[in-house]
Design goal:
This protein has 508 residues and is an alpha/beta fold. It has helices at residues 13-37, 54-64, 80-83, 89-93, 110-117, 123-142, 156-168, 178-184, 187-200, 216-237, 270-288, 310-318, 336-339, 345-348, 370-374, 379-398, 412-424, 434-439, 443-457, 472-491; strands spanning 42-48, 70-74, 101-105, 146-153, 208-212, 297-304, 326-330, 357-361, 401-409, 464-468. 48% of the residues lie in helices and 12% in strands.
Amino acid sequence: MFESAEIGHVISKSAYREAVPLLRAALLEAQVRLHENKKIPVVVLISGQDGAGKGETINVLYEWMDPRFLATVAFTEPSDEERERPNMWRYWQSLPPKGRIGIFAGSWYSDPIRQRIQGELSLKELDARADQINRFELMLVNEGALVLKFWFHLTKEGQKKRLKELEANPATAWRVTKWNWDRLKTYDKLQDTAGHFLRMTNTSWAPWVVVEGTDDRYRSLTVGKILLEALQKKLDAGIRPDTTVTPMIRVDTDGRNVLTEINLKLKLDDKPYKTELARWQGRLSELVRDERFKNRALVCAFEGADAAGKGGAIRRISAALDARQFQIIPVAAPTEEERNQPYLWRFWRHIPRRGRVAIFDRTWYGRVLVERVEGFCSDNDWLRAYAEINDFEHELADAGIIVVKFWLQISQEEQLKRFKEREKIEFKRFKITQEDWRNREKWATYQHAICDMVERTSTGNAPWTLLEANDKNYARIKILRNLCQRLEAELNGKPNGKLAGSKKLLSK
């Protein structure tokens, strides 16, 4: 990976002075087009060895371009808030919106490389992180982003010489510390680890550009020209590349599927309902106050047919929690800010800290449900979303977050009855809209989409619970019971096991 960056590239002062004015003008023009286009976010990763000119190059870009539409984020050791969330959370928070350029000094590559050098990651684990990063960057590209990755390289002797030069200059001496000299001792390990990691993540959609960092003028011109050419090509293309996907084909030969097998006749009378409600709300309250939950977090995802009872079920959960401990996130059509980011960004921003609960009323599954059925996104968008959603939930589970997903199913007849009741009750009229009535006409199409969703995203870490919701009493107790059982199993270290002494409380 590094051979071409060890041949001594040099640009003379005269050649540099001649090239810079034209390059600056072209970069500014491309930046204005990018801002006016408002369809493309640009992610620039600046990585490499100490003393290779990462900071200087970022400063040059700020000098050459309009700083109003640039944003630089430097990543060092994660903060306490960041440690309490999945590894990728802090990078999702810093993604640039469409029309802007985000420069990352340090990135999602820094921690895996450091951990491998320090012996905290095996080669197999490093390769798994590479696969995760490749899928993340592919998602960014499929969402319309331009991803540019620069690695600034120095030979071992070149790095030592560079550090001495910086240290000898009073204007730059502050940039060289004992930590930099100590890092020089791990040069060979860094070369081996970075070389392997760069090869594993050098993809067609986000390739690495290795730049020799010895000569400042060569480095600056190289980065500027590559950035300019990539911007121009992306702006001229006008069409974002989509991953090749196979069309969805669904055939229920015998007319049966996961929804037709739900017994919507199940009921629970009011008297046992009140008893069970108090029991399971009390148990939920105990579980979220358990010492072991302080190192975990809970994400509850609610989906269901219109008028299926999501709001009522959520209120029964929140009644058992301390208001300081949970957040309810109602999900509607994305705002302008959210439309300027990748699809999953608006959900990542609400991931809870340890010891907290996030309850989503509608979720990231809108892409494979309403957006699919209503044509709000392309077929490629929702077809690849299954894998992206599974990756998202897998990252949450890896970080110790318990993901519990509920689908509330009702019959068409029960939905019609509830719609009519809502129109009659003053404080419920706001819940029923013309769109709800219109959606009933697409009932069969939605049912097919739901079956596909369950089959492709019900995983070991985040399984779906399908609820018989024609009877609200029954559905609410089943939700609370399943939630408590899942929590207790997770806290006992048996997420896929049976709970000791658990009973089947609701008979069929």
